[in-house]
Write a structure and sequence with these properties.
This protein has six helices and six strands; from the N terminus they run αβααβββααββα. It is an alpha+beta fold and 264 residues long. A six-stranded antiparallel β-sheet has the order 1-6-5-4-3-2.
């Protein structure tokens, strides 16, 4: 019995240590020295975030070739370019879809058949800011469940998300693209989350859910990069009429190259 306890404890300890090392690496993936302190669109939507993650990746394609991939994101649209079994019904698109290139502030970018993120900020060709909070989720619940529950993987991830989130929360998700000074693009993603009073479920599931979010985000950024680089530059910049070009400075001198992908 003592031997079993010792061996079992050693296995459990090694497993938790491996999980800790993997989590520590993932949390640092794509994090540059300069980007975390940058002021980005959407920062004002979550006043006192409980967590704030900023990641970036360099893409060997100009910004106008990257932007269309962002505009068409969403469940039932072009997908999230991540683990499709967890967040899509089918595969994420591997081409630009002209019919999904129109997006405005106030639109919904779906995460499932019942709803999704609200578009709170949009500077065509430069930044997209998505937002969700407990009030938005409450309004969805009042409408009742959607007729289509979605695929099994999406339903399972939705249940975990529900268990891991406290009753009150607010989250903003910003996608910012800027020239890298070498003909390519620096894609920056920032996720800010404010968490209210924790529930017993959120205390247990929350840390695991946080690691899952990092994994999904990493896969997504790599997916956007690979698609934009494979498609090559487009002929005309995607900038809506009446929108002034951004005067945001280039980050070429400050932004480090993204780390090499690690195959999980």
């Amino acid at each position: 019995m003592l031997k079993r306890i010792v061996v079992g404890s050693a296995i459990a300890g090694a497993s938790w240590y491996a999980f800790y090392r993997a989590t520590s690496y993932l949390k640092g993936w794509g994090v540059g020295e300069g980007e975390a302190s940058l002021e980005l669109p959407g920062d004002d939507l979550v006043a006192e975030p409980s967590t704030k993650d900023t990641r970036s990746i360099r893409i060997a394609a100009p910004p106008e070739a990257v932007w269309p991939w962002l505009v068409q994101m969403g469940y039932g649209r072009a997908g999230w370019y991540s683990y499709d079994a967890m967040d899509m019904k089918g595969r994420s698109a591997d081409r630009i879809l002209p019919e999904l290139q129109q997006l405005e502030v106030g639109d919904t970018v779906p995460t499932d058949p019942g709803g999704g993120f609200l578009v709170r900020g949009l500077d065509p060709g430069h930044s997209l800011v998505l937002y969700a909070d407990s009030e938005l989720i409450a309004r969805r619940r009042e409408k009742g469940p959607a007729d289509d529950a979605g695929p099994a993987g999406l339903a399972a991830s939705g249940r975990m998300l529900g268990a891991g989130m406290p009753e009150d929360f607010a989250a903003s998700w910003a996608f910012v693209i800027r020239p890298d000074g070498a003909g390519g693009t620096l894609l920056i993603e920032r996720l800010q989350v404010w968490l209210g009073r924790q529930t017993p479920g959120s205390r247990v599931v929350g840390p695991v859910l946080g690691t899952g979010v990092v994994l999904m985000t990493r896969k997504q950024m790599l997916g956007i990069r690979d698609r934009a680089e494979a498609a090559g530059p487009i002929q005309e910049p995607v900038v809506s009429q009446g929108v002034e070009p951004s005067n945001a400075p280039s980050l070429a001198a400050d932004a480090p190259a993204a780390p090499e992908p690690v195959h999980a």
